[in-house]
Design brief:
alpha+beta, Immunoglobulin-like, TIM Barrel, 4 domains
Length: 509
């Protein structure tokens, strides 16, 4: 009798659990179709959250942290409940937000229109980003979903090397959709002094096994520079080794829109980099302003290095292309022309607003010239388009904000009052958005002015700042082996000589 009662009780418990699951664990199928009214179905990115605010990802489509992408139509299997979603396709499209109510064992279809804000490529502006850590097999869909045109993929990074047990690909540059490109041999050397990124090499640099401090990153940088066509990027302006890398004269760009700036948050400290004064530049956007200030000091020191952008999707929670750089080209896009345009500074970086600026009718990167004794007036035309309300449009001249416009809208188009130069210098335009969680902005690359025989403005204060930085960095080197220490510090010594030379050559305080 006891056995019979035990059997009945067990059967009742199992049945109760099963019935409970039937009532509460059934799932439903939702088909989501996304279209651009002008071209039809388009790939996009989806941020989907359940009632508790937890991100819901997909096993069928490339997913990362808080989002997934799909090729214009997705079939999702979801448990019953309330969901919120946001759909995006890079900064040239409106975002669409909404809610989903999922009922038991149902099938439904959701059709969403994702309209364009503008078409940058139609005006000759082509988007790219320099910090992609995603799986190679997903890259084409990721680029389509973000409407991104150039994206080298990092396949080697310190001791990680995708090609360690595989032959190097015969075709390193991949072109698809007639105007999208990715390269399979991008790499990153990220150690104690910060991160340098390498593009357009034919094989990885031999950095596997390198220590935190030794060999110096300059060892590999000089090795890379021997290869024709290589591009070397300082990933962030605040890394400890930045003044040493700058002094080498071997870097091509510097990350003004970098991965500390994320889609829904900021990384608020400088990691293992030169810290800012957090009282003067408080979180959450202080790190973004510090990045700007350091880049302006680079320009004030007379170094003409264009800004770059990267998101580190695959490591940090950003989507691919969240931080991107647009390059202005005449005619069709080619991979080689895009890099040439970036080198010339015909560009702007952004993680939101689309910022098109001309100065006396010229694009960023232009060098204006005038004779000694002349005053050169500059007329600025500004076109800002985006989704976020703009907090300020600022003209930065020789490191100082000299004009501010506060549109209190997501778009702005107009001319700004003239700025003037009576000596060589530089200027750029920056747009900052009203976003309380992250530093959302856009910045043109610099325009340059050359008056008389002194072509470059060289600030003594900026050069002294970098010299002090080198001394501070040298004091942080912890290598007990004398030879290793000498191998590293010889580059610091060379940097000191460079910055002392800049101080001697300074033509402004």
């Amino acid at each position: 009798m006891n056995r019979f009662l035990s059997f009945i009780l067990t059967a009742w418990i199992v049945a109760s659990i099963w019935l409970g699951c039937v009532g509460n664990c059934l799932s439903a199928e939702v088909t989501i179709v996304v279209t651009d009214p002008t071209v039809g179905r388009v790939p996009c990115r989806m941020h989907l959250k359940d009632a508790a605010g937890k991100a819901v990802l997909s096993k069928e489509y490339p997913s990362w942290k808080e989002h997934f992408v799909f090729p214009g139509q997705a079939k999702l299997t979801l448990e019953p409940g309330e969901y919120t979603f946001e759909l995006e396709r890079g900064p040239e499209y409106q975002s669409v937000a909404g809610t989903l109510t999922i009922e038991d064992d149902s099938k439904s279809e959701l059709e969403i229109t994702l309209p364009r804000i503008t078409n940058m490529a139609a005006d000759g502006w082509w988007s790219g980003e320099l910090h992609v850590h995603r799986d190679v097999e997903d890259v084409e869909l990721l680029m389509r979903a973000e409407d991104l045109h150039v994206a080298p993929v990092i396949t080697w990074w310190n001791n990680r090397n995708l090609w360690k047990d595989h032959p190097l690909p015969k075709k390193l540059l991949v072109k698809f959709d007639s105007n999208r490109f990715y390269h399979l041999m991008a790499g990153e050397d990220e150690r104690e002094g910060g991160a340098l990124m390498y593009f357009n090499l034919g094989r990885p640099l031999p950095i596997t096994g390198a220590g935190r401090e030794h060999p110096s990153p300059l060892t590999f940088l000089k090795m890379a520079r021997a290869h024709r066509g290589v591009w070397i990027d300082i990933e962030k302006p605040f890394w400890w080794d930045v003044p040493i890398w700058l002094a080498s004269g071997e870097v091509d760009s510097i990350g003004l829109a970098n991965n500390h700036m994320c889609h829904s948050r900021m990384y608020e400290d400088e990691a293992w980099g030169k810290p800012r004064d957090a009282k003067r530049l408080p979180p959450p956007r202080g790190n973004g302003m510090w990045t700007q200030e350091l880049y302006y000091r680079v320009l004030e020191a007379g170094l003409r290095i264009p800004p770059s952008a990267g998101s580190a999707s695959g490591v940090l929670p950003n989507p691919v292309g969240y931080n991107r750089v647009y390059v202005k080209l005449d005619g069709e896009l080619t991979y080689e022309k895009w890099w040439e345009g970036l080198r010339a500074g015909r560009s702007f970086v952004t993680n939101g607003p689309l910022l098109r600026v001309t100065a006396n009718g010229e694009n960023p990167g232009h060098v204006f010239a005038a004779a000694a004794g002349e005053r050169l007036p500059i007329s600025l035309s500004v076109d800002v388009t985006g989704r976020d309300e703009i907090e300020a449009i600022e003209v930065i001249q020789n490191g100082k904000v000299v004009q501010t416009v506060r549109p209190d809208a997501a778009t702005y188009f107009g001319s700004l009052p003239n700025i003037e130069f009576d000596a060589s210098g530089w200027f750029l335009v920056r747009a900052r958005c009203k976003n309380p969680r992250t530093f959302r902005f856009a910045s043109t690359a610099p325009f340059y002015v050359e008056i008389g025989t002194e072509k470059h403005r060289i600030s003594k204060a900026a050069a002294e700042f970098f010299l002090d930085w080198v001394n501070e960095r040298s004091a942080r080197v912890k290598l007990s082996d004398p030879q290793m220490r000498q191998d590293v510090l010889k580059y610091h010594d060379a940097a000191r000589e460079f910055w002392r030379g800049r101080i001697d050559a300074a033509n402004v305080e």
